Structures are given as structure tokens and as C-alpha cells.
Amino acid sequence: MTVLEQTRAPRSDVRPRRSPLGSRWTPYLFLAPAAVFIGLFQAVPLAQEIYLSFTRTSLLNPTRSTWVGLENYAHIFSDDDFHRTLVTTLIYVVACVIGSVGAGLLVALLLNRNFRGRGVARALVTVPWAAPGIAVALIATWMLNPQYGIVNRFLDAVGLGVPGGAILDSSTYALPAILVTTVWQLFPLTSVVLLSALQAVPRDLTEAATMDGAGRWWTFRAVTWQVIKPTVGLLALLMTIWSIRRFELIWLMTKGGPVGSTETLVIDLYAQAFDSKQLGTAAAIGMVGVVISLIVIAGSRLVTRAADKEGLR
Amino acid sequence: MSKPRVRRATVAAATVVGLATAVSAGCGSDSDASSEGGVTTLTFAASTFGDPGRGPQLQEWIDEFNASQDEIRVEAASVPYPTFGQTVLTQMGGGEGPDLVRFDMPEFEAASDAGLIAPLDDLIDVDQYELLEQPDRFMVHDDVRHGIIFEASNYAMFYNADLIPEPPTTYEDFFATAQSLTSGDVFGLAFRQTEAEEAGVWQDIFNYVYGFGGAWSDGENLTINAPENLEGLQAYKDLYDANVIPRGADAATFRRMFAEGKVAMELNNGGYATHLRAESPDLNFSAAPIPFPVRSQGAILAPIVINEASEAKEEAATFIEWALQEENQVALQEILGASSVATATERSPESLQEMPFLTTFDELTESSLPQVVLGFEAQTPDIRKIVVQNVIAALQGEVDLQTALDDAQEQATELVG
Fold it and tell me: How does pLDDT run across A225-265, given as a tens digit for each residue?
């Protein structure tokens, strides 16, 4: 028996017992908590918003809705104020993306060079990003205060004072003021991300380009830009979506005024929902924002794919 | 093979049901009332509880009620004024919120129209109280009483008595005084003129419209672009254009400037008097009727109401009845200063000695109106938004005032149908 047992060859068709973690349900098991979370807190509210956008619902009686079909959409798209809101949103988003990514890239290029105190400078640059949005809005509002604000004092001193001094109450200057504040808060993030991308640029490539007689601009364009381009694309996408969604900074600084000059989609949505108490109209505005975001994401993926194909060729 | 599948399906279904139950458990419809050890605790929400000049005294007044019996306890909930209506109405719309609420008129009208306020007729016998007739008539809708006046505060002209020994009595004097006192960082006048303070701008322009004989409606139709309204709002715009106000300054800023002697005049309601006295005891200020052609001005009417969703309506009514008792009305009147309360009360000699102008406010009660659009009370917040936006567009020079009012009339008419 003993000999037999010792000489028995292992059966080739015997497979080791599979661990429970190896079952085909395992991925679903791990995905389930996230799926339930997303379902409960994103899919259900989104479905509810889609439904609300086809109803007339008051915030004061949210359980009593009347189905109105496309009426809310017809109403907002025929409203001149909503057209202005879309234009303002577009200006705000484009300026935010160009401003924050552009300023971030400049700062990242500076911080990527060797100079004394570079570590301190890199730490200081992150401060605006670390500051809470509400604090940034309140400080900016105080700085722009026509009576006590330092900005007006400075502008007056250099002969560039705004008539009346009320920058945030001027339909000409309010949006630029909000844009400057937004870019000031955002550029640290883009600069830190781009700095890490710049540090991934192979030094031998830039040195080779320099030895081949390329100037700084051509080295940047032919080597550095090619490496950091995907990061810039990702940042532009994130900044676009975040800018479409940005609320607290604009609301606290101007509440969308004066005369709607700083009213973006999100501000309009909030005003419709909580000032006018029209949840149906607000939901329709929200859906327009969702569609715009989806278009931006789809456009970004198309551009990325085209760039990848170009790179492969 | 089918058994494990059935079991898996059962487990999955149970998980979903369990999660749904857990989530919905936190979403019940309930007011803030709670009962423990035989004591029912009510929440009373008001923006004035956060007013440093009156909040602590109001808390003491409520403490007196709590000490007067051992079955009901009222807890004050302070909600900031700028977001008060939005916060409380959103809670009440969801079937929750405080049991007792001190509303301002536009939100009171919106809430009563939406059925969020409990009718008081079966809860409180108002016939046993001598309620002030003029403000009280706005508490009843279609013979149903929804509120009791907690505070009625008429608008008057506050002025720095060191800068202005004799207050102006005509609009021309008013304008000239404002102009003559404006110099450097001192301004002759201050009012709200920014969209960020929409409700405040509405309160301020109300005095100009009604003070020049205008009205937002005739009770049945909107009259936003009536000639009298144009005249009143032109007076408002003329002062803005004359740079006699600190442009862009919000109410908090220009009230601080008034307290510092850097603003000479301001149109404000009686509640401001106690606030000023508490915050700036050394300021030499007084009050006089607004010197516009017609003696008609706004009033802050602030009713106390019971949340329809409250589970303790009887107890809430008990508190209101206690508040209406004569000695408690007198005490409340003393706290509120230049404001009136629900019933006629005698002002104490001490109060009159400290603020001799209190009688000015009392005399304005008959000519004061709540800042709502009569006949369109529930839609006042929406009409307010339209009017304020268009008036500010005119201040900004984007359109002329007549066009702005015509636009507002058209938009508001479309809104109300």
C-alpha cells in the first residue's frame, strides 16, 4: 500500500480547488458597493431630475407634480435670458480653461528650472488651491469692496479706477473680476500637475534637440509639448467640467448679477429652484448642463483618439 | 442549478430592499417637535434671534414662557435673514421644519398659498385680543387666519442728528441735504442698490414708489410701469446718479458707516433703532417721517405662524396665546423698540426718554403697507426679482428707466398670467 501510494502519479486532470476569490462573480462582488453607491446617489437622482424636467413642480409642494412634457425645455430655449446665460457660461468656461491651464503651464515651466528657494516657491504656489472656495470668495469680495477694498485703492492710485468703484456691481467688470479670482484659485492645481508632467520629459531628448541647434521655443514645441500634451488635454477636460459646475464662488461674489452678467447655468439652476421655486424648470436647465458636459467629454475622447492615431502614423 | 440562482436572487433582492429601507428611514416627513418626559419641545425659527441688539432679549422673553409652565419648552432657532425664507420654506415644503416661524411677508404669503401654514381659527380665539387693525388685516386670506403679527415695523428716515440738526421735510430738501453732506468718504444718504441684496432693494424702492403716490398693482392688475412709479423710481435713480450714496456698499457696510458718522441719512424700519442703540450707544441719531410727497411707506410685517407639518400645533398655539397676553406684549414691545406688536401697547416712560422718536413710528402705522404686491401676494418674490433686475439695469445705464419698467411690467404680467 505504501509503495503504491508512493508511486502513484498525480492525476493530470485534477485541478486545484478554486479559491472563492477566483470565481467569475468576484469582480461583480468587488464592484457591487461602488455600483450601489453610484446607483443610489447618482443614477437615481439623475433619473429623478430627468423626470422632474418634464413636470411642473414647486419647491413648496415637491410631491405634487404635473406632467407638462417638453414645456420646460420650450420655455427655457425661448427665453432670451437663458440664451445670455449660455453665452456667459461659455465665456466663463473658455476663459477659466485657458487662464488656469495657461497660467499653470507658465508657473510650472518656471518652477521646473533650477533656482534658489525653488522648494519654498513650489509650496507657496499651492496655497490658493488649498484655500476653501468660500473663503476665497469672501476675501475677493472684501478686496473688491468699493469703500474699503484694496483693489479699488490700487486701481485709483494708478489711474485705472472703475467709475463708482463698484467692480462687482458693474455689468462690465463683474465677470472679469470673477474670472481672475477663479483662475487665481485654479492655477496652482494645473501648475503642480504640469510640473510633474514636465519632470517626466526625457532630458536626453531636450539635450539632443539643443545639440541639433533647436532654440528654446522649438525644443518646447517639438519635445516638451509632445510629452505633456496628454496631461494638458486631461486638465483642460477637468477644468471645463469643473467650470460648468462651479457655484459657490460666483454665488457668493455676485449671485449671478448685476443684470445677469455673471449668471452661469448652475447659478440659473439654483435661482430657478430656490428663488423662483420652480423645480421643473431648474431640472430642465440641469439637463442642459448634463448634455453639454457629455458633449465636452465625447469631444475630448474624439480628439484624444485622433491624436493617438496621428501619433501611431 | 436553479436553487443557488434563486438563493442569489433572493439575497440580492433582500440587499436592495434593505438598502432602500435604510435610506428611506432617514427621509420621513416630520416637524421639529419632540416630546420627552411629558415636556413637548417646540422649535421657533426667526432671523431676529441672531440680531445682536435684540436676540439675547428675545431669548430671555422665551425663557419666561418656558419658566411659566412645565409642559412645553420653546427653543429659539436663529436663521440668518438673507437665507431665512429659502431655508425654512425648503424645509416646510419637504414636510419638515420648525414648529413656529416668524416670517417676513413675501415668504408668509408664499407659504400660506402653498398650504404650508396651519390655519389658526380653530387653535386661537383672536376675538379676546385687541389686535391692531391695519397690520392684522394682512394675516387673513379668504377668511382663513394664517398668522398673528409678531412685529410690525414701519419705515422712517433715520438721520445723524449731529450732521442734520433739522430733518428735511420735502424731497427737494432731502436731495439737497444729501448732496451738501456728501464729501470725501462721508455720504449724505445710503440705500441698497445691488442685485445681491434683491430683497433689500425691493424694501428700499418700495418707499420711493409709494412715497410718490405709486403702487405695484391696483389689486387686480399689475401697475409696475405707472407714471407715479416712474416718478418715484426716477427720484431713487437721481440720488444714485448724483453719487450721494456709497455705491456698491451692501447694507452691512453702509450701516456700519452710519454708525461711524460716515452716512448721514437712511430709510429704514423701526427695528433698526434698537439695533443702533445697542451697537452704537454714543451715536446721536433720530428719526422722522420719510419726506416724500405722499405719506405712504413700507412696513416690515412679520407674522408668527404654525407649521402645517408640526405635530404639536396645540402646544404652538399655547405659546402664541401666551405671547398675546398684555404683559408679554408689553415686554415684547420693549424688546422690539420702535416696532409695534400685535396689540396696542403703552410705551414705557423710560423707552420714550431714551428714544423720543418712537412715537413717530407709531403714528406711521395707519399709512404703512406690507412690502407685497397687493392681489398678487404669493407671487411677490417672483415679481420682486423681475422688478429689481430691471431697475438695476436702469441704474447701470443699460436701459432708460421707462423701458426698464415697461419690460418689468411685461415680464411680470406674463408670469402672473
Answer: 988 998 999 999 999 999 999 999 999 999 898 888 999 99
Residue spans of the domains in chain B: they are 34-152+300-366, 156-297+372-416
List C-alpha distances in Å: B215 to A61, A153, B105, B133, B190. 30, 41, 17, 21, 23
User: Which residue type, as a one-letter code, is found at position B166?
Assistant: E
Residues 6+ apart with CB under 8 A from B383: B216, B222, B224, B373, B376, B412, B415, B416
- The answer to whether position A222 is within a domain reads yes
Question: B327, B96 in Cβ contact below 8 A?
Answer: no
Q: In this structure, are residues B211 and B191 in contact, taking their beta carbons and an 8 Å threshold? A: no
Alpha helices per DSSP H over A58-79: 71-77
Contact residues, chain A, for B195 at CB < 8 Å: 169, 254-259
CATH number assigned to the domain comprising residue A128: 1.10.3720.10
Local structure of A10: helix, strand or coil = coil
The DSSP bridge partners found for residue B217 are: B222
Other residues' Cβ atoms within 10 Å of the Cβ of residue A294:
10
**Of A129, A164, A122, A130, nearest in space to A147 by CA:** A164
Distance CA B196, CA B198 (A): 6
Window 43-72 of A, Cβ < 8 Å to B: 58-62
Q: How far is CA A152 from the centre of its chain?
A: 30
Query: Taking a contact as any Cβ pair under 8 Å apart, which residues of chain A between 143 and 162 contact chain B?
Result: 145-148
- Asked whether the domain spanning B156-297+372-416 has the same topology as the one spanning B34-152+300-366, the reply is yes
The one-letter amino acid code at A36 reads V
Contact yes or no for A274 and B86 at CB 8 A: yes
Is the pLDDT at B220 greater than 60? The verdict is yes
Triad B153, B154, B158: Cα angle to 5°:
110
Interface test with chain A among B195, B308, B416, by most A beta carbons within 10 Å:
B195
Residues B139, B140, B145, B146, Cα dihedral to 10°: -50
* Paired strand residues for B285: B160
DSSP H helical ranges for B298-378: 313-324, 326-336, 349-354, 358-363
- Cell numbers at residue B237, please? 435713480
Homologous superfamily of domain range B156-297+372-416: Periplasmic binding protein-like II (3.40.190.10)
| Domain range enclosing A266 | 71-312
> How many structural domains are present in chain A?
1
**Reported pTM:** 0.79
Residue in chain B closest to A258 (alpha carbons) equals B195
Residue A149 in domain: yes
Domain-located, residue A113: yes
Residue B116 banded pLDDT, cuts 50, 70, 90: very high
Please confirm whether the linkage preceding B349 is cis (ω < 30° from 0): no
Task: State the Cα–Cα distance between residues B285 and B291, nearest whole angstrom.
Answer: 17
Measured between beta carbons, the chain B residues lying within 8 angstroms of A170 are: 396
Q: Which fold has domain B34-152+300-366?
A: D-Maltodextrin-Binding Protein; domain 2 (3.40.190)
Residue A57 within any structural domain of the chain: no
Q: How confident is the model at residue A10 (pLDDT cuts 50, 70, 90)?
A: low
Pairwise CA distance, residues B334 & B341, whole Å: 10
Q: CB of B74 within 8 A of CB of B106?
A: no
Question: pLDDT band at A13, cuts 50/70/90?
Answer: low
SS3 content of chain A, % helix, strand, coil (to 5): 70, 5, 25
